[in-house]
Amino acid sequence: MEAIRSPRDVGSGTPCAAGTADSLSHACQSGELLRRPGAPSVDPVDGRRATAIAGAATALHRLGPVSDLAPPDIGPTPRTFPGARRPDRSWWVSSDGLRIAAYEWGPSEAPCIVMAHGGFDFAGTFDGFAPLLVDGGYRVVSWDARGHGCSEHAALYSWAADLRDAVAVIDSASPDVPVVFLGHSKGGGLMLDLAHAVAHRLTHLVNLDGLPSKNNWPDLADHERTKMLRGEIEGWLDHRRDVAGKSRKPGTIAELAERRQRMNPRLSIEWLEYLVTIGGIEDADGWRWRIDPTLRLGGFGPWRPEWSMQRLPGVGVPTLGVLGLEREVMGWGTLPRDVEPNRPPVFAFCALEDTGHFMHIEQPRRIADLVLDFLADHPSPDLRPGSAAPAQPPVPAARAGVAGAGAGGRAGAGPSAAPDGGAEARRIVPLRHGKVDLALHLLREGWGRPLLLLHGLGEHTPAEAPAATAAWQGPVYGLDLTGHGASSVPVGGGYTAEAIMADIDAAIAHLGSVTILGRGLGAYLALLIAGARPTQVHGIVLTDGPGLVGGGIRPGSPHIPAVAATDASPDAFVLSELSRDVRPPDYAIEYVRLIMEHAAPVAPIAVATVVRPEWLTAVVEQPGVVELPVDEALASFAS
Fold first, then answer.
1. Is the CB of residue 545 less than 8 Å from the CB of residue 521?
2. What pLDDT was estimated at residue 186?
3. In a shared domain, residues 64 and 85
4. For residue 565, what pLDDT is reported?
């Protein structure tokens, strides 16, 4: 039975295949579809994929008239292009019942790069780029966004839905092992959000001209801008009213390519004709783009492009940003000066004078070399080109487990040697806190007051002390918060910032007086614990990272998230609950006042963030709070 395939089953898609949804679902659940001829059983990774694929088959059953489904088509096309190669495998992913077409280039055992395409594009736009990364030792996975290419058309489209689709694809391609995230244009913004939402799922981030910093509108007077907004709204409503039952305008391959070239004048007509045969479909009256007719360029709403840029400083993995400086209709017009103030801790940045928005199509070899060199220059224990990916989630150097979680929770990661075989690089002090076992990591020995690192939401203690702490003379520790890293995962969630603050109090009880360097969620927690224990916390430094913003200054609409309970770390409940916790500015100010009542002559709160949510803006405005780079702030607390 070949109707739905695992990405490991090599073969090209065909226009149709036999098999009902019921039979497909049964076969997927039994593992039948995932076995190569002669293979005795399904391996654990394929077993996870079987679950996702079975979900796709179940979703098909609900679709009514559609009962037969072939894999997404990756067969030969009427046009070819030098260097372009169709994917080696294709499969369906069910994203909450919606069919998403996923594709893979390269050997399935190689380290994985997951790539997101831009708006009004397709996974096939990587046909010339992906093979170059495969030649560099990787496998590449991409997908057609909902409403694009072979993926199913949806009733509704939103940024949140695109994020869910992306996670479903990542789950199907690499359920256990972190991967490289790469995105172009809109896909770059998508991957930037995911670097915060699922920080434990990536080793590196690559952004190709996907860093918007402003609306790409002419610089108009306010009253003219109001007219433009009204026109956008009216045009969108008229489009939605009239679009039911309509399809995109047909034409020949050449005609569709010529239309596309008006928006992408730097791309050759030969490439665009090739793209038509991938992203289009031939009907009786001609070729049409396989894009839902309800989708249209442009739009309106409360979203601000600069909000995406504000995600950049908090990314916790090595990041490569590439800008094309040749202005194009579909580009953002972002300049290096827009990016520089928002640099994340480990950042490689290139601004290419002679390159446009579609850089990976225009200059695939050049961009592939940039990506491969970047990955080689920033190696990760989670990603080793040329070797098989590890069967279990990799853990940072010398990560060790703690004692069993007991009745209140599940144990975190077990003991593990450092990649070089030595466990002396760092050690873990197990701390029992209520019904939770915490992992307190000693990252560097020293004399004097300890520096305590608090990680961001979804992260864990880093493998090494950050470079900004090099001058700190005392020991450097890092605490894995409950539900993260090697600390235990409690059953049933129930996370609050105040409860996690008590984790830090347990570490302080062990260490004595500390200085705290907090990142993202850890920055907010540093403020809370410093107010609660002002005589034991000698200075806090607040930096960007996942979980810095929280859920805003007041509760939103009541929401019951669908969270699947697993043993995985980070806990799915902590990602959900501590991304929605309310942080009113006046509440944060109360902690500042508690700190200041016991403040030493040195200002006890240093803010080193680029992003300033409302609670942090209120903190910065208080007397005695200073704004300093991390190294300078730590130097001020060293005495």
1. yes
2. 93
3. no
4. 67
Is the model's pLDDT at 526 over the cut of 80?
yes
Sheet strands side by side (includes 427-433): 427-433, 436-444, 476-480, 451-454, 514-519, 537-543, 605-607, 625-627
For residues 427 and 569, state if they share a domain. Answer: yes
CATH code at position 414: 3.40.50.1820
The separation between CA 568 and the C-alpha centre of its own chain, rounded to angstroms, equals 17
Measured between alpha carbons, how far is 249 from 565 in angstroms, rounded to an integer? Answer: 46
For 39-72, write each residue's pLDDT tens digit.
Answer: 333 333 334 334 443 443 333 333 332 335 889 9
Q: What is the pLDDT of residue 69?
A: 82
Compute the distance between CA of residue 153 and CA of residue 294 in angstroms, rounded to an integer. 9
Query: Which residue's entry shows tokens 């898609």?
Result: 13
H-only helix segments in 285-435: 305-309, 336-339, 359-362, 364-377
Query: In terms of domains, do 604 and 576 share one?
Result: yes
pLDDT in the model for residue 220: 56
* Tokens encoding 554: 């007041």
User: Are residues 549 and 464 both part of a single domain?
Assistant: yes
Together in a domain, 455 and 589: yes
Compute φ and ψ for 192, nearest 5 degrees: -65, -40
pLDDT higher than threshold 60 for residue 392: no
Identify the domain containing residue 2 by its residue range: 1-71
Contacts of 234 (CB under 8 A, 6+ apart): none
pLDDT-above-90 percentage for the chain: 62
* Confidence band for 382, pLDDT divided at 50, 70 and 90: low
Q: Centre a 10 Å sphere on the Cβ of residue 347 and count the other Cβ atoms it contains.
A: 17
Burial profile 497-512: b = 16 or more Cβ within 10 angstroms, e = fewer: beebbbbbebbbeebe
Element (H, E) at 227: helix 222-242
Q: Is residue 299 a part of any domain in this protein?
A: no
Residue that terminates a domain, selected from 12, 37, 71: 71
Whether the per-residue pLDDT at 18 is higher than 60: the answer is no
- How many domains in the chain? 4
Encoded tokens for 382: 């989670």
* Beta pairing partners, 519: 543
Using one digit for the tens of pLDDT, what is the confidence trace for 281-293? 999 999 999 999 9
Question: In this structure, are residues 187 and 116 in contact, taking their beta carbons and an 8 Å threshold?
Answer: yes
∠ CA(600), CA(605), CA(607), 5° rounding? 155
3-state SS, residue 532: helix
Q: 10-24, 101-115, 319-333, 591-605: which has the minimum mean pLDDT?
A: 10-24
Contact 460/394 with Cβ under 8 angstroms?
no
Q: d(Cα 31, Cα 535) in Å, to the nearest integer?
A: 59
Q: Which residue has the higher pLDDT, 398 or 364?
A: 364
